[in-house]
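Sample pair:
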Amino acid sequence: MISKNISILVFSLFVTFGSSMRAFAQEEQNYAAIWKTLSKITYKKEFDELMGFKIDKPVFSDPIKALEGKEITIKGYVIPIEGYKSHKEFVFSQFPYNMCFFCGGAGPETVMEVLALEPVKYTTDPIVLKGKLKLNGDDINRLMYKIIDVRLVKS
């Protein structure tokens, strides 16, 4: 009887652990899918009157346009704008600081501006944020992507 109970307990633990691992893997795929969608971008050369030369303007794909104004949940890294403290405004990157766009390791589609409702503490570990996605195809002084009304989901 005890042996049967132990077998049932062990089986239950494996089922529970397996379900948790599948849920974790699905969550990670969802985060990766957002970044993958945001990478589906092309550029067109357009003359900029203010700059006086042609610049690359982003052309957002239909899947990206479908995310405009929608709430997204995304995993990435804090790239602080000023110092290493808590921030309501910062750059969020698909990659860690040493691999991010500003360090030459990735493209501009791998970073976004963040406007958080509450300050988010700087960390070198990945975090999960939730907020509304805004697209920027016109202002060359800003990033192409911005998320607003951001809340920290997981640190």
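The chain has one domain: 2-154.
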